Amino acid sequence: MIENEILDNAKALRSNQTEAELRLWYHLRAHRFMDLKFKRQKPIGSYIVDFVCVERMLIVELDGGQHSEQIEYDQRRDDWLRSQGYTVLRFWNNDVMQQLDGVLEQIRLTVIPEPSPPAPLPPAGEGR
To answer: What domains are there in the chain, each with its CATH number?
Structure first.
């Protein structure tokens, strides 16, 4: 019964996306972003995440003003999702609306981290 409620809630959320969710979804959907498959309003456990790329175990959450009043809940939720192996990125809705390129860049850097610097060479005269 609870699973059906979660699925119904996810479907309702997909039908009533915020302007910020619609804007970000335009860029993430249909393999448009780095040829990755993202899903929206996807149930994971007893939670519904805004966007998820299962292949990269990446969740992207958009927060409106109500999230400033539910910090502890969001922390417990994120902790559980991380315990399942997901990376969770959170952005404010106004970041998506005003700095979309920066949001997409942060997602890109999470998917493909900057390469680490090469290992130092051995001191002269050592090795072959």
So the answer is: 2-111 (3.40.960.10)
